Amino acid sequence: MRPKIEMTDQKAELLLRSALLEDATNINERLAAISAEISLDDDEIWVTLDMDLWPEDKEPTQAIEVAKMLWLEVEWQVVSGNFPFAWPGLGEHTNVTTEYFRMVLDAHAGRTIIR
Predict the structure, then answer these.
(1) Helix, strand, coil fractions of the chain, as percent rounded to 5
(2) What is the DSSP letter of 5?
């Protein structure tokens, strides 16, 4: 007897977000994967990524493969302006969060940090 998998929208979203993280090659792209808006409706899934974080021409191959395995058609959308820090380009230079945040802190040196 084959095991049955109960696939909920939340589980599908989690799988797709995990695949987006696998596709990410730097801090910016990981932040995009974590903050992506993902919603499901019947046989479609909508993924909205921040264009300041995820390169418009980058193909998220793992996420596309997961969507195919879930029998979902993906609709990709981009938005601008959701970036959490100034200087969005800094995250393209490292894959290490501590290095990235050090660059953010250095870029803000001498300025008041707003919480």
Answers:
(1) 45, 15, 40
(2) -
Angle ∠(41,70,80) on CA atoms, nearest 5? 55
Angle, in degrees to the nearest 10, between helices 61-69 and 9-23 = 150
Give the per-residue pLDDT at 76: 93
Residue 8, judged by CB atoms within 10 A of its CB (0-12, 13-18, 19+), counts as exposed
Radius of gyration of the chain (CA): 17
For residue 101, being part of any structural domain is answered with: no
The residue ranking higher by pLDDT, 81 or 9, is 9
Strand 37-41 versus strand 44-50 pairing type: antiparallel
pLDDT in tens, 46-81: 999 988 889 889 999 999 999 999 999 999 998 887
- Report yes or no on 42 lying in a domain: yes
CA 9 – CA 44 distance, rounded (Å): 11
Helices 9-23 & 27-35, crossing angle to 10 degrees?
170
Query: Which residues constitute the domain of residue 68?
Result: 9-84
